[in-house]
Known about the structure:
By secondary structure, the protein is an all-alpha fold. It has helices at 14-39, 43-52, 59-74, 79-100, 104-108, 110-125, 127-132.
Amino acid sequence: MVAITDAVPAATPKPMLWAGRILTGLVTAFMTFDIVIKLIDMQVVRESLVQLGYPPELGPTIGAIELICLLLYLFPRTAVLGAVLLTAVMGGAISSHLRIGDPLISHTLFGVYLGAAIWGGLYLRDARLRAIFPIRL
Length: 137
């Protein structure tokens, strides 16, 4: 029997690789913006945290956690761990917005959209991930 780690995945076609890189770039751009406004402790972040029911001084801490997760996601050796941790961050955001009754499509499900982009970018870039989770039609 051949273990999954013993199988050599096929090379990633260039269009798929570039689609994955672009999707990852969009996620990175959004997360970088979100992290920066939290780390510099902008007033809009403090107000949003209060609206969500969190102490306003948690912004920089949340930003630092997001930064660590994003950095893990961007390095190929730790990309899957970073995607898992970013998914956890998105889950917290989803639950926070759901709890206070924010609009479903624009606010509550935004974490789902971002999570899909996180995993979609990684899936398109990494043949090993596609070998573990093949799409069967």
